[in-house]
User: Which sequence fits this backbone?
DNA sequence: TTGACATGTCACTGGTTGGTGACTTATGTT
DNA sequence: AACATAAGTCACCAACCAGTGACATGTCAA
C-alpha cells in the first residue's frame, strides 16, 4: 500500500526521534515510542539502524547539532583573523549561548550527555572536545594572551557557565536573581561575559604574587 | 515475622531510593526498583508516601543535599563578616565546587532537575534560589563592590560554570583541554575562579566607555 | 483476653517495554 | 512472465511497569 522508499523511511525515523526528543525529552525514548511517533513499524528500526543504541548514535553524530566555529562567532573564519583576543573571545562565548538557545535538540542531547557514560557519550564528548581545542588553538595563537593567565581554564569555566544557564532555563526561571528566560536577564549574562573577559585580559599584573 | 517499625521502614525506603539514585541514576527509578532495593514491599511506598512522586519530593526536600552557606565557605558565619569581598567570593565559589564534588546524590538531583519541569523541580529551584539570594545579599552588603559591575550576574555565571563542570565530570574527562577528573585540572579551575574574581573586582574602571 | 487497627505479604491486573519470527506485498531484474 | 529480494505488516513473546485488593499477622488499648 505505502510507497517503499528506504531513505524516506529512515528520515521519518530520525525525524520522529528528534521530535520526540525535543518535546518529551529522552525519558520517553524507546523503540516503541519512536516507531509510533514516526508512523513506522518498530522492526524497521532494527533492520535499518540495528537497534535503539545505534539509532541514537546515527542521530547524534549525523545531525546539525553542534554550531561551527564561524556560526558561534557570527562571522566567517577569515574575518576572525583580524580580531583582537578580547573581541574574539567575547564573540565566541556570546555566540555559543545564542546558538545553543536556538537549538532545543542540542540542549536535549547535552542534558542526555550528563546522565550516563557510555560509548556514545564518549564519542560525542570526543567530537566536542576537538572543536573546543580548535577554538583554544585559535585564541592561543594570538600573541596578546596575558602571562600568568590560564586562558583555557577561564574559557572553560565561562563556557560551561553559559551552557549550564541555558540548560537550566528549561526548568527554572532564575539563577541567583538573574532571570534566565527574559531578554533582560540574558543581556545581564552577556554583559557578565564581557566584564569577565575584559577584566581578565587587562588585569593580569601582580596576579602571581597576590596568590600566595 | 519482621519487626514492625514504620519509621525504620520509611528510612529503608528513602535509603534505598538514595542508593539507587546514586548508583544507577534516575533512569532506573521506579516503584518496583526502589522497593526491591530497599527490601520492602512496594505497596508500602504507596501507603507511606502516597506514590513515587511524593516519595521523590520527601527525599529531595528532606535530605542533607544542599550545603549550607557556612559549609560552602568552609568557615562559621561569624568568621565571614570580617572577610573582604574578594576572599569571601572566592571561598564561597571554591567551596561550592568542593562540596558538590563530595555529594554524588546532590549531583544526581541536579542532573534530574535539568530534565523536566514540574512541581517538584519548581520547589527545589525555589529553595535553592533563596539560598543563592541570601549569599548575594551577604556579598552585596560589603561596600567595596565596584561600580558598573553586575556582581550577581558574574557570580551566577561562575557558579553555573562550576556546577556544570562538576556534573560533566561524570561523563567526560576533559573540557576544552582542562581535565575534569584530575587534581591538576581541578586546581586549574580553582585558579581560574580566583583569576576571574580578582580581575573583576579590581579592574572595573573604563568598563562602560569601552563597551560602546 | 478480646477486639480493633496498623503493619507487612502476596497475588493479580492491565498496560508497556524490547525484541523476534512469520507473513504479505511491492520492486526491479532477467 | 517468472522470480529473488527488499520493504513493510502483523502477531507474538517474556519481562517489566504502576497500581490495587485481599489477606495474614503483629501491636496495643480496652
Assistant:
Amino acid at each position: 500500500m505505502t510507497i517503499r522508499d528506504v531513505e524516506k523511511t529512515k528520515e521519518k525515523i530520525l525525524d520522529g526521534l528528534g521530535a520526540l526528543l525535543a518535546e518529551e525529552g529522552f525519558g520517553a525514548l524507546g523503540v516503541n515510542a519512536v516507531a509510533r511517533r514516526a508512523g513506522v513499524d518498530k522492526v524497521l528500526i532494527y533492520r535499518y539502524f540495528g537497534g535503539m543504541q545505534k539509532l541514537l548514535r546515527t542521530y547524534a553524530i549525523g545531525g546539525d547539532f553542534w554550531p561551527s566555529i564561524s556560526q558561534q562567532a557570527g562571522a566567517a573564519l577569515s574575518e576572525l583573523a583580524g580580531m583582537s583576543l578580547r573581541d574574539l573571545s567575547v564573540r565566541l562565548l556570546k555566540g555559543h549561548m545564542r546558538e545553543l538557545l536556538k537549538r532545543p535538540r542540542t540542549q536535549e542531547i547535552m542534558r542526555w550527555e550528563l546522565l550516563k557514560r557510555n560509548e556514545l557519550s564518549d564519542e560525542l564528548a570526543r567530537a566536542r572536545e576537538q572543536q573546543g581545542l580548535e577554538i583554544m588553538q585559535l585564541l592561543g595563537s594570538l600573541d596578546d594572551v596575558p602571562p600568568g593567565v590560564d586562558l583555557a581554564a577561564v574559557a572553560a569555566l565561562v563556557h560551561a557557565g553559559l551552557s549550564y544557564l541555558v540548560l537550566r532555563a528549561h526548568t527554572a526561571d532564575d539563577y541567583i536573581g538573574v532571570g534566565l528566560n527574559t531578554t533582560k536577564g540574558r543581556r545581564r549574562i552577556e554583559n557578565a561575559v564581557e566584564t569577565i573577559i575584559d577584566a581578565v585580559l587587562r588585569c593580569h599584573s601582580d596576579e602571581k604574587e597576590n596568590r600566595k
